[in-house]
Structure formats: structure tokens, C-alpha cells
Amino acid sequence: MLAGQARWAQARWSLDARANLSLLPALHSLERRIGASLSLRASGARDGPFIAHAETPFVAIDARGAVDEHLALDGAAHFVATSARVSDIARESPFGLGAARLEGELRQARGTTAIQGQLVARDIDALGRPVSLSGPVTVSLTDDRFHLAAQLAAPDDAPALFAQARLRTELSYDRRRHRFELS
For 11-41, how does the pLDDT look when each residue is reduced to its tens digit (9 = 90+)? Predict the structure, then answer.
């Protein structure tokens, strides 16, 4: 299920771990989204900078930032998340979703985890035509709510069907009431 190695010293720490998510029924929905296996490599100073790389069959994430003396995030962490085929993660999409890259910052403060980034989604197969979309994305997560907002646009050289295409979306999920809101 979980195998790895962790090293802790006075000033530095490191972690190299692998997990088989399919062995825990409670993680079944996560496994469907990101794949059955997870590998994580991270290292850093006990009270200072860190680097991390996490990878599953469907997504890879590289991050760097800093932690405080309690190993909590100290300021913003820069990250890059990539997927060769987003349709593997977002199976509900009515369109085929190809490669995507999200680059930005992750912050934690006062019970909120927030992400601000720039998304580039390539090879979207919409209405039988390929198109790319890019633009800003924001995400916030609290104990009560998950919120996602995006404003994506097609490039200037998009096929005629998608010339000047814009996609603006907001999705909220009330975690206590288990209800979605989409606009």
C-alpha cells in the first residue's frame, strides 16, 4: 500500500514514497481521478525552502516553496501541474481534453488553501474541431466550500468555429450540504 523512506535531521528532511491507492476503498474516487499509483519525492530545510515532485499515471506536479518550523507552508509555493490527457481526470467532460499545464502559486492562510494560476489546455476536441484555451484560474478550499473560477480564451489563430472564443466559468461546492453551484 505505502512504501518509502523518510529522513529527518536537525536542519534537513527528505521523503521518497510510493503508494498504491487501489488498495484503500476510501480512496476509490481519488484513484479514478488521478490513477492507481502515486510517487512523491520531496526535500528541504526544516525551517526554509523545499522542493517536491508528485506523479500519478494521469498528472505530475512540481512545487517549490518554504515551510516554517512546524512544516506548514510559509508564503506562496510555486507549482507546475501537467497532464498528457485531462480526459483521464475529468471523465465527465462532453469534449475530449488533451494535454494541459497549470502553473501558479498555492497559499494557505486562515483556514483557506488558495491557488492562482495560468492554465493552458491544448488539444480540446470540441464539436469535431481541435482548439486550445488558456487563461487565469483561481481555486479556493475551506472546510465548508470549494470554489473554482476560470476565464479562458482561444488563441488568435483558432479555427473559424472558435474565433474569439471565450469560456468563463464558476463552480462552487458546498462541502457540508454536498451541493454544486455552476454558473
Answer: 899 999 999 999 988 888 889 889 999 999 9
Within the chain, residue ranges assigned H as helices are 28-34
What is the Cα–Cα distance from 54 to 19, expressed in whole angstroms? 11
CB contact set of 126 (below 8 Å; sequence gap of 6+) = 95, 162
Quote the pTM value. 0.90
Query: What CA–CA distances, in Å, run from 28 to 35, 100, 145?
Result: 10, 24, 22
Q: Which cell is 114 given?
A: 488558495
Q: Cβ-count burial of 116 within 10 angstroms (0-12 exposed, 13-18 middle, 19+ buried)?
A: middle
The band of 56, judged by pLDDT with boundaries at 50, 70 and 90, is very high
Residue 183 has pLDDT above 70, yes or no: no
Whole-angstrom distance, CA of residue 131 vs CA of residue 152: 12
